[in-house]
C-alpha cells in the first residue's frame, strides 16, 4: 500500500502542477521549522512562528492527501 502511495505521489509530482506547488511549499515550511528548532535560544515570537508554520504545513499536507485520495485507484468488486 505504501509503495502505491509513493508511486502515486511521484506521478503527481511529475504531472500535476498544483500538487507540485503544494509539495514545494510544504518542504519550504519544513525547512523553516528546522531552522527555528535549531536555534539555541527560542523566543516567544519564535514559538508563535513555529506554531503558525506547523498549522500551514499541516493544511498543505491535508490538501495533498485529498489529491492523492482523488487519484487513488478504487478497488473493483
Summary of the model, kept short:
The chain has helices at residues 2-15, 17-37, 44-71. It is mainly α and 77 residues long. Helix 1 (2-15) crosses helix 2 (17-37).
User: Biggest sheet, in brief?
Assistant: none
Q: What is the overall pLDDT average?
A: 92
Q: Termini separation (Å)?
A: 18 Å
Q: Radius of gyration in whole Å, from Cα?
A: 16 Å
Number of domains: 1
Approximate shape? elongated
Quickly count the helices.
3
Low-confidence stretches: none
β-strand number:
0
How do the SSEs run, as a string of H and E? HHH
The helix fraction, in percent, is over 70%
Strand content: under 5%
Query: Helix/strand/pairing class, anyone?
Result: mainly alpha
Task: Please describe what this structure looks like.
The model has no long low-confidence stretch (mean pLDDT 92). It contains 3 helices and no strands. The relative contact order is 0.16. The protein has one domain (2-71). It has helices at residues 2-15, 17-37, 44-71.
Summarize the SSE layout with pairings.
Layout: H1 2-15, H2 17-37, H3 44-71
Helix pairs in contact: 1-2, 2-3
Task: Please supply descriptive tags for the structure shown above.
mainly alpha; elongated
Amino acid at each position: 500500500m505504501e509503495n502505491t502511495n509513493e508511486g502515486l505521489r511521484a506521478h503527481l509530482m511529475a504531472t500535476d502542477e498544483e500538487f507540485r506547488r503544494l509539495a514545494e511549499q510544504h518542504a519550504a515550511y519544513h525547512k523553516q521549522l528546522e531552522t527555528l528548532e535549531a536555534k539555541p535560544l527560542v523566543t516567544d515570537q519564535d514559538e508563535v512562528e513555529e506554531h503558525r508554520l506547523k498549522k500551514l504545513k499541516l493544511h498543505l499536507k491535508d490538501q495533498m492527501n485529498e489529491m492523492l485520495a482523488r487519484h487513488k485507484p478504487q478497488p473493483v468488486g
